[in-house]
Amino acid sequence: MASTSTTATVADDVEAEAFKRLYPEQFFDRFLGEGVRPDGRPLGRARAVTIGAGAITSADGSALVKVGRTSVLAGVRLELIRPDETTPGQGQLALNVELAPFSSPDYRPGRSATDAVSGVVEKLQAALLSGKDTVLLNTLCVAEGKAAWKAQLDVYVLDADGCVTDAVLLASIAALRNTRLPLVRNTKEGNYVPARRAEEGAAGLVEGCPRSVGLGRCPLALTCCLYKQHVLVDPTADEERLAECAVTVVVDQGGRLQGVYKAGGKVLADAATLLKCTEAARLRHKELSGLLEQSLQMGAEAAAER
Amino acid sequence: MVGVFGPRQSEVKLGFTDTGRLNCEVRYTSFAAARASKAEQGQAEAAAAQALSQALEASAQLERFPKAVFDVSAMVLEAGGADAAVLVTAASAALADAGVELHDLVSAVQVVKCGGQLLLDPSLEEGGAAEGSLLLAAMASTGEVTHMEVRGRWGDGELREGLELALGGCGQLRGAVREALLAGMEERAGGA
């Protein structure tokens, strides 16, 4: 008796899997008709997030972020440079996003991994560097016209299961805030070099050099999918593939809009839908910023122990 | 982290082979290690990829997959010493997890000689200060070595001692990998 029931469930499993592959839309519609999604979430719920600030000890600042199965690793590497002549009082921030080959089943060897994420880089660039009040580049300046930090922010997408932009932006913010700028020493020859930890308090240190990257705002993103008449918050890769269009909303800590992206698609979004997405993004920002503070605190404590 | 794709059809330009091939690719994150330049990093990546494919080739039953290619792509998130050994172990585990038929799991360890002492699985500082290093990749259940690299000056006795230490390490590691694979399978079976 027991054996027959187990074979029945196995057959059901196989059938469900086959059904999903052959008729993804019908498979999906059945769930949505009940008001749930294939992974058991209601339509309006985002996935659980974990943030690990300071995950990589060899980087100057880093964060590992997971949104459901989507995993993103961001790291900052610092370098002392002579500031650009046109902006003597500013440092630089270089952004780069890369997709690991094993992050997505759509990846094919030979295709450049950066093509797939060029849209993400653009959004990241807009969120962090446009408007000049998000990342405050003047806080990266050590001595005007002479020395400034160049922060190289590299983001690696390790597992792309939907909402890559959201995770990339969150990881970038966490990594930047996790970054500690070392003290800078002015050598006898007049060169500026980063001081090692043992030299703290030694002669020749530059007075009042910055210790952290200044962030005027804290932009975070939330992606929603529009599928038929439904709005799916924080979709997985499967859902993104099915849905005709996605709306990404970037808001800052005050709930102010910093960017809305709707990349074409067959479905037209009306004002009410966009407002709904914005509202969801504001709620998500509150949730995430709490987690972010907590994780940064833990990261700082761990760094102090080392 | 390591991912495996395949089998896929081999590219025509590479000619016909009646056995499968492993196509290994290794990437370091830019902040994985303090490195001077991009070129240096590229060299390290190429060298690591070569060592990886050499260490794994013998373990996979490639004759069962004629004309096919497996893509093994690895990414080093943080280099904290003995990267090459960890790469091999992780890639072998990924191959097994992907269901590629293997003769046995390959596990690899690094042993360094530091001030007359042998250290198993060195940290970055220990690796930098070492006078000699030994990288051993082995199929531990049969005790067969797939790949070995020895650098620096080693005496006969020292080398034997180092080998024994490394083989012991491989055995331990193989047990751990096996357990992790089994746990992963059970989890998936439970989730489905």
TrEMBL record, chain A:
Where is the protein situated, by its record's location annotation?
A: Cytoplasm; Nucleus, Nucleolus
Under the GO molecular function aspect, what terms does this record hold?
mRNA 3'-UTR AU-rich region binding
Q: What is this protein called?
A: Ribosomal RNA-processing protein 43
Question: Its family?
Answer: Belongs to the RNase PH family.
Q: Which GO terms describe its cellular component?
A: cytoplasmic exosome (RNase complex); nuclear exosome (RNase complex); nucleolus
List the GO biological process terms. Answer: exonucleolytic trimming to generate mature 3'-end of 5.8S rRNA from tricistronic rRNA transcript (SSU-rRNA, 5.8S rRNA, LSU-rRNA); nuclear mRNA surveillance; nuclear polyadenylation-dependent rRNA catabolic process; rRNA catabolic process; TRAMP-dependent tRNA surveillance pathway; U1 snRNA 3'-end processing; U4 snRNA 3'-end processing; U5 snRNA 3'-end processing
Nucleus: is it a keyword of this entry?
yes
Give the keywords, sorted: Cytoplasm, Exosome, Nucleus, RNA-binding, rRNA processing
The primary location reported for this protein is cytoplasm
Superkingdom of the source?
Eukaryota
Exoribonuclease phosphorolytic domain location is 46-182, 219-281
Q: Which organism is it from?
A: Edaphochlamys debaryana
From TrEMBL, chain B:
Q: Which domain of life is it from?
A: Eukaryota
Span of domain Exoribonuclease phosphorolytic: 1-101, 104-167
GO:BP terms for this protein? nuclear mRNA surveillance; poly(A)-dependent snoRNA 3'-end processing; rRNA catabolic process; rRNA processing; U4 snRNA 3'-end processing
A Pfam family: RNase_PH
| Signal peptide as annotated in the record | none
Q: Sorted alphabetically, which keywords does the UniProt record give?
A: Cytoplasm, Exosome, Nucleus, RNA-binding, rRNA processing
The Swiss-Prot or TrEMBL record annotates one GO molecular function as: RNA binding
Q: What subcellular compartments does it reside in?
A: Cytoplasm; Nucleus
Tell me which InterPro entries the record gives. ExoRNase_PH_dom1 (IPR001247), ExoRNase_PH_dom2 (IPR015847), ExoRNase_PH_dom2_sf (IPR036345), PNPase/RNase_PH_dom_sf (IPR027408), Ribosomal_Su5_D2-typ_SF (IPR020568), RNase_PH (IPR050080)
The UniProt entry's GO CC annotations, sorted and at most eight, read: cytoplasmic exosome (RNase complex); nuclear exosome (RNase complex); nucleolus
For whether the record's keyword set contains Zinc, the answer is no
Return the similarity comment: Belongs to the RNase PH family.
Q: What is this protein called?
A: Uncharacterized protein
Per the UniProt record, the source organism is Edaphochlamys debaryana
